[in-house]
Amino acid sequence: xxxTNELTSAHRGDxxxxxxxxxxxxxxxxxxxxxxxxxxxxxxxTLGRDAALVRQALDHLARLAGKPLADLExxxxxxxxxxxxxxxxxxxxxxxxxxxxxxxxxxxxxxxLGLELRAPFPKGYTLEQGDWxxxxxxxxxxxxxxxxx
Length: 149
Fold this sequence. Notes:
Layout: H1 9-22, H2 37-46, H3 51-65, H4 74-87, H5 89-103, H6 107-112, H7 136-140
Helix pairs in contact: 2-5, 3-4, 3-5
């Protein structure tokens, strides 16, 4: 299979539906939902190493739904999504991450957030300093993690 065809048409339909549930379109902010054609194309084109987990998540979603997610009544769709979040594990988390990363790199979304349409490097972005004391519990565990080779 080529990179853009790693998902079946049933997978792609369920991906579009669940993506719209994760991030619906907003007239208030004038942004598309994650089911937008361009955003969906980005997801399919950039799945890469996440493809197997996304397929696994979509297969699990299909088992829960028993038919294409879009064919379910909205209340039933929400119930399936709730069960999917509770039982989908790492595969579901990967699917959500893929939806979020593709959504938040769309030019229309970046523009609505007031961000400059450019790569973050080499100029970078200025981040406010946070509360570094929150890392103290991690620092206290020094030596419990294995060193990189």
